[in-house]
Design brief:
about 120 residues, mainly alpha, Cytochrome Bc1 Complex, Chain D, domain 2, 6 helices, about 0% strand
Amino acid sequence: MRNLLMTGLIVLPAVLLAQTAPAGNADNGKRLFMEKNCYYCHGTTGQGGRDGARLTNTALNADGLIRYVRKPAGAMPAYTEKLISDQELRDVHAYLKSLPAAKAPKDIPLLNQMSER
């Protein structure tokens, strides 16, 4: 029984690590973001636009982003694995996570000057 428990304690972490998805490549993610036309709705740096949500500082993890891209809500079209693979979406996620968060309006001097007039 003791040997079985010890074996489980050694094998379980190895199994869990093996199931962990590979990390994304931000440089490839940026290339894919432009190539797959994500920028068209979401802006060139994920800042959002007229038709797309802001993606910088997203709360979604890579798996959440993959699920959303496969079955989106709203006007966004679904992207199947034929169009972009899960690993490519992990790369896009890594790119989005590498982007700085947007500044708050109070931290943009020009906006503050305009509101003082």
